[in-house]
Every structure is written in C-alpha cells, then in structure tokens.
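We treat protein structure as text, and this decision shapes the records that our systems exchange. Because each token names a local backbone shape, the row as a whole describes the fold. An entry from our holdings is shown next, in its original layout:
>
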Amino acid sequence: SNCGRVHKERYNPHKRFYAVADGRNIGIYALWENCKNDVLGLRGADWKIFECKYDAKQFMKKRGHKDYPKEISQTEIPNPLVDIDFQKDKEGRVKVFADGSAINNGQLGATAGIGIYWGIPNHPLNLAAPVEGPKATNIVAEIQAVIAACRIAFKFNINKLRIYTDSEYVIKCMNEWWANWIINGFRTAHNKPVENREILQQLKALLEKIDVKF
C-alpha cells in the first residue's frame, strides 16, 4: 500500500474501506454493515477490502469508476469477514489454493507471479501478484504463494487452513526435511546450503501461528 508514505494518509490498522465496483450499488464504504447489503448474495459482485482510502479509490478507478457515492464514517466493524463465505473441508478447515509460476524460469529476465484463490469467484481475498525480490523462479513463486495465503489467513483470524498446492518441494520442506536441516545447520543431505532458506524460514514461522495442513 502507498498510504501514509506517499499520500500522507494516516494509517489506522483498525479501519477498513470497502470498495464496491459492481454490486447493488457502487461506492466506497467505511462500514461493513452498509457494504454487505450491496454485495452478499449477489452473483458476480466485484468488491474488495482495503486498509486505506487511497487504495480503495485506485481499485474503483481501475474498474472504470470516477464518480460514485462515498460514505466515510469513524465507526468501524472489528471483523469485516463474519458474513463472508469460505469453503471448508470435512475437518472445518478453510480451503485455499496457492500457486506460483515463472516465465523463462532460471533465465535472465525471468518474471514470476503468485495466485491465491479461496474457492469462490470474485472473493475479496483472492490475490494475483508478482513475486517479491530479485529471484524469479518457479520454486520461489510457489513458496511465496503459500506464504501469502498464510499471511492473509493470519491477518483475518483464520486459524485452521487447508492449503492446496502442487508444489511437492514446499510440502517436503515443511513436513519432511525441516527437522534434519535444523540438526545439520541448514545444510542438505549432500552437505550443501539449503536454497531459499530465508523465505522458507518465513513460511515456517507462519505455520507455527496457524494450524495448516497441505
């Protein structure tokens, strides 16, 4: 987000803005109670939650809306997701699909991105984003995708998560190899330094905060 740094908008971690680009009405809301009437139960509704007004405005602008009603209120609902649907498995875990891929993997000029899908089209927490950092590979993208899913879950108090990923590497790193890496000083069975150690440690730290199954 550019809020606070570029636009001098004071960041408030307890405040949310709800941008509705396609709903029963369109606009930016500061109250979830008012926003939900325009989007819940409406097939194809296009809306997202933002932490600052500037990002909400940019979302509306990208959707082609320049003039629309704006409602700003100092009162906020502490948990905006209480009425949002999630798909759950038989254990009651929220289901999320995380994937990453790279174009020209391993070559100069490679680009990579991640995708997070909560099993519902136009879900406000669905995400598509470029890989962060200079290393744009398939493996890095897959790790960052799982990290992003965990961060979103943690931020919105989702405590039990089922992550669907086709990355056997990520699953084995977390479930099979990690204990030996700690014993061996983060060196592999071939006595080589573990690749992607920093972001793998970020992921492991998140898995200690959230109950995750792959």
